[in-house]
Amino acid sequence: MGQGEARSLILAEARRLHAEPRFDSRTCERIIQLTGALPYALTLATAHVSAGHDLSSVPQALGKSETLSALFDRSVEVLDDDAVYLYMLLGKIGKPVVTHALEAVLEVHGRKFESAFEQLQFYSLATASSPEAHRLLGLTQMAYAHSKSYSIAHPDEMEVEDLARKIRTWAAPRAYMGPVFSFFRNLLDDIQHLPMSQRNNVLSIAAHASQDYPELGLEVAREKSRLGYPVNETRQSFKNAAASSYDDPMVWIEWSYFERSHGNNYQSIVTAIRAIESGHSDPQFSSDTAAALADYLSKNKDLIPSHRRGSFIESVRNDMRKHRDSNLLSATDLSRLGWLYLLEASPQDRDLVVIANQMAQEGLDLEPNNQYCKNLDERTSMQLC
Fold first, then answer.
1. Cα separations (Å) of 7 from 13, 23, 292?
2. For the CA atoms of the chain, what is the radius of gyration?
3. CA neighbours within 13 Å on the CB side: how many for 147?
4. 42 φ/ψ angles, rounded to the nearest 5 degrees
């Protein structure tokens, strides 16, 4: 029953019982919330309040009604298996839960959430708050009591109880996090306490949710890396995270570190450069990337097309120049910057060699005995002769 119809029914029943002054808009709204707008429950609740009883005692009073219990039984009987599962799960949880989290959990457990959700709403067994992005799904007040009694000795009761216990833990709020991200961060933190047989399931839940909440993609990749999942599987998770959060430098940074730890130097360099291009500007990170890039190009120059070589070099070099202008580079960092000029120089590019030599001289001014700057100075001086 809709809100308007439910309010009209309450007022009509209150008028019949000569108790209309007791029912202001707030009382009507609370009765609707408690009863889920079920017509028979509305009638019983109105009679209870009309008799002078407190509004807070409505659920207990209605719970004693055999007719109302029968009405709930009849509603649940027409639900399909997935809707019954969700109904029992919400009853076991005992409070509203982030809808998107429930959807992800049920989908991974092979349950069709959307149709189950629609059935519970249609029969006034569940309600969802707004806003859409963080809406909470819970049973109506009367349905909680019925759900708990209905699930007793049900074939799925033990499984539902176990899942409800986990969801209550995962639903605990965390500071500075929205309810959805907080839920999945708790879920991923809990993964280390689970047996290996359940870890895939937990990660699958989070990966499913990351389709709508991209920031979760990096969390999934991090956990797979930390738990030692197969390299290709973890790499695919980083790739998925990057696809949905392309401009997030942190995705590229952590992907780069992952590749470096597994000996994939080329992929480590490419992802590090993506991080720089996405706005990550840190002197040490750029210097380390420059060193790895220079080493790789000096050994594999012929394997990389010149246009790609130039693009790689330019991205790192431009960022390092900003740090140089701010006097944030050490002598070793300056030598690495110089090599980025030298590696791009052809025999005709005397100007680039001059700049590389200049970087060596600036480094030696900072640290006269720096061996890297000495080597660069010697190399560029020979080419300039």
1. 10, 10, 71
2. 32
3. 27
4. -60, -40
Strand runs (DSSP E) across the chain, as ranges?
A: 97-98, 126-128, 136-139
Would you call 142 helix, strand, or coil by DSSP?
helix
Q: How far apart are alpha carbons 209 and 297 in whole angstroms? A: 40
Kindly report the pTM of this predicted structure: 0.70
* Architecture in CATH for domain 285-385: Alpha Horseshoe (1.25)
221-259 pLDDT per residue, tens? 998 998 889 999 999 999 999 998 999 999 999 999 999
Interval 17-64: pLDDT, tens: 888 888 888 888 888 877 767 776 777 778 888 888 887 777 766 666
pLDDT digits (tens, 9 = 90+) for 338-350: 999 988 877 677 8
- Classify residue 80 as left (phi > 0), alpha (psi -120 to 50) or beta: beta
Say how far apart CA 244 and CA 269 lie, in whole Å: 21
Q: Which of 41-45, 103-107, 131-135, 298-302 shows the highest mean pLDDT? A: 103-107
For the chain, give every domain's residue range: 3-64, 75-171, 285-385
Instruction: Please give the full DSSP string across 50-105, using - where no structure is assigned.
Output: HTT--GGGHHHHHHT-HHHHHHHHHHHHTS-HHHHHHHHHHHHH-S-EEHHHHHHH
Mean pLDDT of 263-268: 93
Q: Which fold has domain 75-171?
A: Arc Repressor Mutant, subunit A (1.10.10)
The count of other CB atoms within 10 Å of the CB of residue 326 is 9
Alpha-carbon distance of 194 to 46, in angstroms, equals 48
Q: What three-state secondary structure class fits 311?
A: helix
Sheet with 97-98: list strands edge to edge: 97-98, 136-139, 126-128
Tokens of 6: 């439910």
CA–CA gap between residue 340 and residue 337 (Å, rounded): 5
Same fold: 75-171 with 285-385: no
